[in-house]
Please model this.
Amino acid sequence: MSAAFVVGLLWVLFAVTHMGLSSRTWRPRVVAALGAQGFLGVYSALALLVFTALVWFYVGHRHQGTQFWAPSTGGVALWANYAVQGVAWSLVVAGVMTPSPAAFVVGDAKRPEAARGVHLLTRHPVFMGVGIFGALHLSVMGFASDVAFWAGFPLFALIGCAHQDRRKLAAEGADYRAWHERTPFLPFTGRETVRGLRELPRLAIPIGVVLATGLRLLHGPLFH
Model:
């Protein structure tokens, strides 16, 4: 069994447990059995367990299998990669600093005019930022196990966010639909991108750039 296959299998397990437990079929059953806090505890613990196993296995099996392409290791392409990493982590930071009201409340907070800042860039800034972070690694890591691991981030971001949107549209109807229609799915594809950039928290971009820089500086000592 190849390392890439195991990595892919662990990603599938993570996605199935993460999205399955939050589905309209299983979430009510688990909440009824364990309560809302019990559900959150089980959901979080299981996600952490599977994701930790995924990362642990990959770290021990990096750069294995067929090399599909040679990595880009210098020049303009590498510096562009670093710059977009700053963008990715700025999305994550802005999403953490300004959580979506659609995630917590219903009614007025989901009216179209409630959408501001980073949610005019994408309604899923944290997941999309992490997805971009993973996708960027594909240009510098071309072995099968690397591709299986890093491609999982953008794939999970796209599939997971689409699943969340469908679940909320089905469960909450008009309360979520207005928010859904006002905020873009993919980053920087909405009509109000410029306004969203202007309304970002002041510290989001500096912190995002610092995080991206710090991760790059730690990359060598930790992973080589």
In short: Confidence is low (pLDDT under 50) at residues 105-109.
